[in-house]
Amino acid sequence: MKVRVDLGLPIKQLLVSLVLLVIADGLISQSVIASGVGSEGNPFLQTLVGDAKFLPLKIGGALLVAIVLWDIYRRTPKLGIAASAACVALYTGIVYWNLVVYLLGGAG
Fold first, then answer.
1. What's the mean pLDDT in 80-87?
2. Structure pTM?
3. N or C: which terminus of the chain carries fewer CB neighbours within 10 A?
């Protein structure tokens, strides 16, 4: 007897989590930079922080990555889930780091 595991729900949860983490990263980054306790680590986005285009660019990039990860998942489900989980883990670390900088830097 073969047991079939539905991987559809975990990938959707991972991709939604990733997009929300990227949005949180953008919002916290703007606060950290505006308060003067930190700087943007991504050299491509350094000049855009504080600009009205910054958050839409982050959201657009996150959605593009989510679409690519979904396509990987459709072709190779285990790889798609592993790659998505790795991205979520990475961005979770980034968001936690930003929060630590924000709170310990005197902005919170």
1. 96
2. 0.84
3. N
